[in-house]
């Protein structure tokens, strides 16, 4: 369940960065300029990154003990570093880093879940 929640939080990061770009073309005609600007406040980045890191910190080590596959941990750490770099880089390249980092985090959760399920199935079939 933690992997599903973590993947959805990462999808929110992608939406947070890509939605303003998609709405940019409509901002002048619909008066969305202030709304788009509010999407990129620094406090919002912290609110989005904090639960992602917290879920990864709980989910990945616990699952690694069960399945011993280091790939989800490598992807998770790379994703968090990339997300953090995106926040620090500023608006010019932030979208690229956020989408890349979120993709890495989503991949880590999905691989972690798949590996954990296959491990549980293997143990269950031995019983």
Please report the number of helical segments.
5
The sequence of SSEs as H and E is: HHHHH
Outline the biggest β-sheet: none
How much of the sequence lies in strands comes to under 5%
Question: How would you classify the helix and strand content by structural class?
Answer: mainly alpha
Name the overall outline: elongated
Count of extended strands: 0
- Structurally, the number of domains stands at 1
Descriptive labels:
mainly alpha, 127 residues, 5 helices, elongated
How would you describe this protein?
- With 127 residues, the protein is mainly alpha-helical.
- It has one domain (2-126).
- Helix content is 89%, strand content 0%.
- The protein is elongated, with a radius of gyration of 17 Å.
- The mean pLDDT is 79.
Summarize the structure.
InterPro entries: Mercury-R_MerC. The chain has helices at 2-30, 33-38, 42-67, 71-89, 94-126. It is mostly helical and 127 residues long.
Describe how the helices and strands are arranged:
Layout: H1 2-30, H2 33-38, H3 42-67, H4 71-89, H5 94-126
Helix pairs in contact: 1-3, 1-5, 3-4, 3-5, 4-5
